[in-house]
Amino acid sequence: PTNGDHSPPPPPPPPAVMPMGSYLFWGKNAVVLFSGFPDGHLGMYILALLMVFFFSVATEILRAAAPRVKRISDRRSRAAVVVLIPAAVHAVRMGFAYLVMLAVMSFNVGIFVAAVAGHLVGYY
Length: 124
What we know:
Mean pLDDT: 86
Structural class: mainly alpha
Distance between the termini: 72 Å
Number of strands: 0
Shape: flat
Radius of gyration: 23 Å
Largest sheet: none
Strand content: under 5%
Helix content: 55-70%
Order of helices and strands: HHH
């Protein structure tokens, strides 16, 4: 309503936002790492499960390989490239670990099971 004053119009109502629950759920309707992925498609959900499983296995394999890589690089020349190899292995391992952590934060039971199973397989 206008009553002659020049006050600004009221702000628009806030957009409807779907609240993110902090509870575990099962199903293919999850958001894993990227908005719109897997987007409710069963094939993409299975791909997400396999990716999380792979990243978990790779994290454990790199964890086990790190001491061996360090020993080998210590025996070799102290050239900068050789010294950086253990650091690169560690950086890749941490990148995989953070991707797994972010995927698990989707609170999807399937993603959680894939992450734990991957760590189990990678440990042995």
